[in-house]
Amino acid sequence: MDYLYTDIYKKLEQRIKGMSEGDKLPSERVMVQEYGVSRNVLREALVLLSDRGMIEIRPGKGSYVTDKKNMRLAKHFESILDEDRLSQMQVLEVREILEMAIFEKAALNADQDDIEAMENIYEQMEKNQNENMGYGNLDLKFHMQIAKATHNDIFPILVHTLYECSGQRMMLMEDLFPESMKSIHRDHYGILDAIKRRDVKAVRRIGKRHFDLDRYMLLSMNEIEEKTK
Predict the structure, then answer these.
(1) Taking Cα atoms as reference points, which of 35, 34, 33, 15 lies closest to residue 25?
(2) Contact 161, 81 (CB under 8 A)
(3) Fewer C-beta neighbours within 10 Å, C or N terminus of the chain?
(4) Is the distance from CB of 48 to CB of 9 less than 8 angstroms?
(5) Would you say the CATH fold of 71-227 matches that of 2-67?
(6) Between vectors from CA 184 to CA 175 and to CA 50, what angle results, nearest 5°?
(7) Fold of the domain built from segment(s) 2-67
(8) pLDDT per residue over 106-147, tens digit each?
(9) Count of CB atoms within 10 A of residue 79's CB?
């Protein structure tokens, strides 16, 4: 199911490239039949496209292609972060600096709808701690929702691009470092709680620990890879 969600996202992204600003995507009913997936999977893909600024979802009216400058920004950023030129550690460093600022801004700007969305995602993460792919996708959704809570449309685009370059390795790390993964999961709750309390100092402290654990696991994983060569 998670693979289908990613697959449909990529297919829709390619489809949008051939469309113009203001064009309407087919209805959900038509796309469900066309791609052979459930409505939930399709909606997950549409929400991610919306988060990245590629489409605008208008309740009751459908999904429309937006200004493609956001798509061009994401693709340009992805080309800069090409794996062949930059190490995973460099990407993680950039992600830490960016997301620390996002955590703080979210603590100041998040409204009740943002908080409820984060709480819903965290509840799903609680239920999927032992599902590598499922937890990885929820981890992305959680960080994306925090970025959306800043109410700056550029942050979700940057977070998604950086996550694709570094965060997906967490699915492999969960098997290698289960205790560290438990700590990272606890950090998610701590970050959520600090944002709810609008505690900038707390969210900064927990965020720093969160990325230190990421760094520790990435270093350890790189050492394992070197030894197996």
Answers:
(1) 15
(2) yes
(3) C
(4) yes
(5) no
(6) 95
(7) Arc Repressor Mutant, subunit A (1.10.10)
(8) 999 999 999 999 999 999 988 887 765 667 778 888 999 999
(9) 9
Residues 6+ apart with CB under 8 A from 197: none
Spatial distance between the Cα atoms of 38 and 5, rounded to a whole number of angstroms = 9
Report residue 26 as tokens.
Answer: 């087919």
Residues found in the chain = 229
* Residue 174: both structure tokens together: 């969960």
8 A C-beta contact, residue 130 and residue 175: no
Does residue 208 contact residue 100 with C-beta atoms inside 8 Å?
A: yes
How close are the terminal C-alpha atoms of the chain, in Å?
A: 33
Cβ pair 6, 12 in contact under 8 A: no
Pick the CATH number of 71-227 from 1.20.140.10, 1.20.120.530, 3.40.50.2300, 3.20.20.70: 1.20.120.530
Residue 24: strand, helix, or coil? strand
Tokens of residue 36, six digits: 């052979």
Summarised one tens digit per residue, pLDDT across range 75-117 is 655 665 555 545 667 777 888 899 999 999 999 999 999 999 9
Q: Where are the chain's structural domains?
A: 2-67, 71-227
Decide: pTM greater than 0.85.
no
Distance, CA of 119 to CA of 125 (rounded, Å): 10
